[in-house]
Amino acid sequence: MANSKVRSYLNELKKQGKFHQCFQQIVNAYRNCSDNDFGIRFSDDDFLNEYKKLCMLMLRYFKKSDENVLSSEMNILKSRLKEDLTIKHLQLMLIDAILNYGLKHHGIESSKVPQIVVLKRDKPMLSPVELIKLPIALQIKSILSKELQTPTANLSKEASYGRLVLYMTTGVQFDELITIINAPDALMYLGGQVFWYGKSEKEERRYVLCDAVVLLLLHHKNFIKPSEKIRVNKNRLSEFIITFLTEASGTNWQSLSLLKLRTLRKIDTIINLSPIDYQMYLRSSTCTELPQTAFLRLISNKALVADEIAKQPKKFNELNKLLSFDSDSFDYIEPKLIKAKLEYTYKNLRELNGQRASRAQCIKFVEQELKNDKNSVYFNILCGWLYYLLKEGGVTKKKLKVDTVIDYVKSISEPFLNVFTRTDLAVISASDWAIKLNDTSEYFNSAQRKKYLYYFSVFLIESEIVKDLCIDDLDIAPVQSKVDANLVSASHVSAILEYLSDSLNNSPVELYAYLLMCFCFYSGLRRNEAAKLYFGDIQVSPIKPNEGEYDWVLLSIRPNKIRGLKTPSARRELPLDALWPKEHLTKLRSFYDVQKNTENKPSNSLLFNCSVSVNKAYELLTQLLHYYTKDHTLRIHHLRHSFANWTWYRLNSNLVLTGRQYLSIFENDLFDQSFITHFNKRLKVKDNTRSKMFFLSHLLGHKVTVSTLNSYLHLKDIQHCAQMNQTYTVSKYFLSECIGRANFKEFMPGESLIERIEFYSKKQEQDYSIQYAGKVSDLITPSFKGFKQKFEADGQIRMLDYANALKSLELNSIHDTASSYSLPVEQVQKLHDNALSVSREYPRKGKKLPLIPNFPSLDNTKDDLKRVSSQKAFYYLCQKFDTLLSQKNVTLSEAFDALQILKYGAAGKNFALRCPDEQVIRNFLNLCIKFKLKSSHFKFRFHQVDLQNQNVIQARSYWEELVSSFGLSDSHIESASIEEGRFLGKHNGNGFLEVGLLITVKGSKGTYKKSRRHHSLMSFLHLLLIISYRAGEAP
């Protein structure tokens, strides 16, 4: 098909480049322009490059333009121009000149190109009309403040409700306060905070309340008789408020409505606090709050086990059944075959859609494809996503067109298959998935299609294929995500760093862990940003500071050859001397100086040059966080969330001062007043500025403050409560008004309101009691006592318990498994980690061992007589090992050495043990003899491999002597076929000896049936290897 007039003209411009008459006219005009016409001045080469880029863009987007340029395509082109104002202004002038030349010489018409860049202006938060209402807002505020000092006597019942409602609106929304007022018994207190907490199967709600509201709720609970209580609903709220304001002030407030009250509250918050505070505190959609367990752990500054029981109901049960595959059973299939199968599915799905088949019929077709093909895990994942998109819709739209669904899956399939097809999905962790998905993102040139990878990641999490995958670890700009909110206190991090500091000389892993913790917690770096820093990214003052002085260290976050950045705005510079406490910065400088002066590292080399040690360091940090806080939902990315919240406090020093009165988490060097002063001075932040959120967004590498507000700040309820207590101070007269004869004790930091009240009788104290949250939650003082980086078998725990725990991990979480079998959570976590390591390392080549051993039935309800032979053998070996271990006849270290024979397992032959190493076989046979195994339990086979003639006889004799030395002379060594040993590999001159374990079963007449191999024996060896993995080695 011939090119259109427009495209022919543009191709001519592209082909001739700087020699075209159009460009020559444009460049002459540009040279004659003064510097004031443009914010920047390009060199001739740069100007030519900009011209060529625009020609390419016009060719890309002017696809349907024929005789003239379509206005729709012109609008698309303008939307793709650079955001920088000066460059965009120049680009618009170039486009205008190119199109004017086309009009003059080729008759190509187009819509007028604006040469002025129009800036988007946000709608003002307060209009002039609203500002006129400020005196009314201040009047209501004055009435509320006066009421706390001199309460109005003899209020009517409706006015009492109105007073409570009016104070409540200072902290919560109208709908929320109704819930609280109707259930005042749900008050709880802990660590200086009083909060209302309600929990249901679907959700949990928590509202931190200021002192005035707490006293009024106690008054409402005890002074108003049950028969006189009014069931509060939204329709009567304005009536109650008007009644109270009229009785308290003596003026008529009949014109006040809930809508007007909301506006007045908005005006007061924006004027007296800031627009950002208004968005944080009074807009429910901003700032994701912490889950209850994390909240309690934080305000108490203690350790608390996270609650995993209250989860959202699964909406993907049908999909989970369709994808109920075991990835160990999948074989490698070439990507082109998977693509062909997917193309066949797309074709049939399009035909169905073309025949106007219903959505249910299309879903049924894809469901059948999933059921028919159970051999390729990769096809099942991609086809499962196809099914999910058809049935559940996308992230933002509930229903997607069939062609859109196919486009999503087709765009992802090729990059996904390129990266994942040679990966064993059974053994890779969630962090490995994140790394590989980041690798997959490199295949996308289009930013729009790169978002599809985000949609795919959401599917992986929701379908529980990779339920622990962290979206924040992906280098993909999120579209809409459910925020995983969690924080770590500065004091807990300091304790972990102190623990690591005592181990810094042991190995590079501890040193890496120490510095990576500082980079993530004190600098807010993403996991990948910290791991792949260049040596040249750090600038250090050449002069070391004197004792007590602040250092000067600057960190540049920028893309490099090894890793890019999540977004262009993630490029930033961080003054570490203002962010890191002096003690930790000293260790970084020491590490930097050693590498600079001793190793003489170039600037483009990695700061942490051993990727294995980096991964181990992150694993160690995760283990330490879990052990110390007892919260196993914490991840490395939550250190970045913690940085955002504690830096916001440091930017607002008034919040730190009020926070110290109620919470012990602010008793840390990070919140030292002199350090905060240096922080503000280094960043040039003024106390009265309202741009603090922009500072925080830049430190985090966010383009807009909305991302910071919505996804990273989680303490708005605590902060707003502190602000309310500052604004509305409760007097002893108001205390007496609400609960009768009582007084305030001397204020002690960390005490909540209910703890500061001195009651005059036990009955009064019981009547106004509030539930203590710590008793229910079982808070404990955190410590590292008993922490072990590696798994160590407990002599009190039987092998069968470990087997049951591993079996349970196939379906249940680590916490549920630990609870079910009364095992420590850390023990189960490390048992799982060992299983993961074993499945990655054994055998040395070929298909790896499964993550969970292929156990026989572990039903303990059957007695010994009813068990089948495989169960009896497995139970015997487990009980025998428990006995040997308790009597110290065998150690875990010896067992691990003996089980190195599993490195030579042959997957295709049910992991037959074919080993060329004499010492490995000796260790294994020695362990078997301790289990009282006899000749009838062994079957030996000799593989001559590449040996010939006399060498075969000598090698066979060599293995016979070795077997006889263990008293197994009755065991005959069979000769395996030469074909079987062709690909066994190198040996030491004696070929390979295959060791097979057999089960012997007595027949009905007392004679033994033919001995046979069984997977239960292999599963025992696999279990023992997991338990003894690297026993005796240094962590």
Structure description:
By secondary structure, the chain is mainly α. It folds into five domains: 5-106, no CATH class; 128-300, hpI Integrase, Chain A (Orthogonal Bundle), CATH 1.10.443; 317-463, no CATH class; 490-713, Topoisomerase I, Chain A, domain 3 (Alpha-Beta Complex); 799-1028, no CATH class. The chain is built from 45 helices and 14 strands. The chain has a five-stranded mixed sheet with strand order 10-11-14-12-13, with helices on one face. The protein has a four-stranded mixed sheet with strand order 3-2-1-9. It starts with a helix and ends in a 7-residue tail after the last helix. Residues 307-322, 324-330, 861-866 and 1004-1010 have low confidence and may be disordered.
By DSSP, the count of extended strands is 14
Number of helices: 45
Q: Helix proportion of residues, in percent?
A: 40-55%
The low-confidence runs, each spanning 5 or more residues with pLDDT under 50, are 307-322, 324-330, 861-866, 1004-1010
Report the mean per-residue pLDDT as an integer: 81
Approximately what portion of the residues adopt beta-strand conformation? 5-15%
Rounded radius of gyration (Å):
36 Å
- How many domains make up the 3D coordinates? 5
Overall shape: globular
Order of strands across the widest beta sheet?
Answer: 10-11-14-12-13
How would you classify the helix and strand content by structural class? mainly alpha
Main β-sheet description: 5 strands, mixed
Span between N and C termini? Answer: 68 Å
